[in-house]
Amino acid sequence: MAINLQKGQREAINAPKFVIGLGWDTNSTSTGTAFDLDASVFVLGDNKKLLSDESLVFYNNLASPDGAVEHTGDNLTGDGDGDDEQIRVDLSKIDPRATEVCIVVTIHDADNRRQNFGQVRNSFIRIFDAVSNTDLLKYELEEDFSIETAVEFGRIYKRNNEWKFEAVGAGMKGGLQDYLNKYN
What we know:
The chain has 184 residues and is mostly beta strands. The chain is built from two helices and twelve strands. The N and C termini lie far apart (37 Å). The model has no long low-confidence stretch (mean pLDDT 90).
């Protein structure tokens, strides 16, 4: 049975291989254009910076250089139930310099489309065992991000040789570029 986390709560991940599932629904709006949300993963070192440019895994770079993080592909519509995008993680392959994996979701072209996370609902991140398809952890964002165009859903970090997940739920207004500035 999955552990449902609250914002700021941390829990150990007791599986070296797992899948991160991210899901959301969009409200009907009068923006006139469809939503396209994108999941991105930043693999960071001790200095809280990307290990390399290729350590940013997203729709345009589907795998980290070590093969530990793999994006399964861009979902352009987010229609349907369940996960809208997934990321496979194998911590047994991860670069030994990696100490954190930051998971961010952004709205593609949000400024031009006049969209923000206040128009998004039922957002969640879950971590599940890829073999048994059993949820290990789940965090549902309950805040209304009315001006933010990017949200850090959570982070996986290494402490005392143990990997843990933290439910973050923090937004930014500048989209993916804000996170690139922060982690590059």
